[in-house]
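Protocol step 4 of 6: structure prediction from sequence.
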Amino acid sequence: MKYVINVMVFFSICFLVPSYAQVEREIDSILKTIPSQKDSLLADAFTKLHYRYRNIGDLETAEKYSDSLGALAYALDNPWLKGDYHHAKGGYYINTSNFQEALKETLLAKDFYTLANDQYWLAQCYNHLGIIYKYLGQTGLALESYLNSLKIKEDLGQTDPKSLMNIGVLYAELDNLEVSNDYYKRVEAICLEEDIPYGLALTRSNLATNLVKMGDYSEALRLYKEGLLFFKENELKNDLGEQYNLMAAAYIALDSLGTAKRYLELALNTNEETGELKEIGHTNRYLGDIDYKLGKYNTALRFFQKSLEIAGESSNTLDAVKDYLKISDTYEKLGNLSKAYEYRKKYYALNDTVFNQKNKQKISALELQFQAEKSQQEIELQNKEIALLEEKQKASRIQRIALIAGLIATVLIFGIGIYALRQKMKRNRLERERVKTELDFKKKELTTHALQLAKKNEVLEGVKQKALELKNGQGDGRSYQDLITTINFDQQGDKVWENFTLYFEAVHKDFEKDALSKYPDITRNELRLMALIKMNLSSKEVANILNISSDGVKKARQRLRKKMQLAPEESLDTTIMAI
């Protein structure tokens, strides 16, 4: 019952978007039921009230009811309700742009939903985590979170337009507008098919933002105005404040500064009413852009510094990067080159941490996806080759029968050509054997490839995470390539390990010889373990590759340390890396 009620609450808030008057009527109706409710039904009432007040922008009252929900959830010691409380609290902190607190609450919600085995709400947590990680500048984790949400929804047989749209937003941040627009179009199709007007308005507003970057201002403003009308009619103040900012940015790009300033005044009033800190920061930055264009550099600087201050308060790394650059440019205009240099250094440092990292992570994700698609295409191609071989075998069999019949008729009629007939039959037999051998080889090749693909698909998600971590700076390009290469190796049989050793030695030349020279007592299995440690793999990955448990990896490492005679303070990993 609790699951059904909460799904209905979430669906009605996030997709149906009732009008302001309807929300007030629902609030009055719920408040009347509270004195007669208890336990889980009372918790659902608190949950509904929290989301209803968030929906109309009254975040202070919304927080009061989430706190009431939390007190009840912990009094009942119910993991489901605890998950609801922390999820609601995390959403509240996202709305108020307090991303560090939002992360803490949402991770707690994820743990409780996992404990309660509530897959639907677990997917919602991953979606929230994607949003939070994006603003914290950890875009690899953001993409991974969105993909986790999509996978759970897919397993439940449901669509997930929110995660698809958020992935589109992430690619827009990467300036990959083509991929971003593809995701937005997918969401647009889902919203049209499932009649989700709110999702449609958000998606088209996001498309408009990409159009502004592409220079198509006319179409962008048309879509913005459609969204603005929808948000006004439904009194969605959080979305309305953001829409005013986006439209102002478009008019700034068009040098329509007076119109832009009017929209920013509306944005500031709306966002101060809702307490949406992130959007207040954006308003200040856009006001700074206007004064910068007008040559009013001192006032522009104050606006940019206010925007940076807000970004710092909310741990909004993405906005901080932009603010550093604008402040540096403004100081340069003011002739304060030392300050310009100081902020330009901050910009480059943060930009290298966030944006370059994001590009690498994006490439990694696309590479993994490409490998999977390529493997599938290869299997389909081999299926076609087998079908052609089977047709060839069939045709050869028919041809052989006809030939034998003709030869028999010839023998009966003419009584000659016995030798020629035997030679012809021999050649046909060899051809049959050749075709059959080729067919068997292709079937075996296909079976082997399919098994490899099945294994690859089983570990692909885990390998991807490690690849992203390596790209985040925990290893150099060679270590990353080593990790990717391990996907292509089978885990079974000494033959695969021989191939692995050949490849490994090509990358880490003379590693085996040097290792045996320094530590002659190590075994073949211990040498394999050293090779995997040399590749900077985690204990979990080593366990998967060696087909042993995590405890088994620990014991194997301890045995290896003993044979290498390492002192307690010496690092096994560092020693092996130095070989």
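Step 5 (inspection) to follow. Residues 231 and 572 are 60 Å apart (CA to CA).
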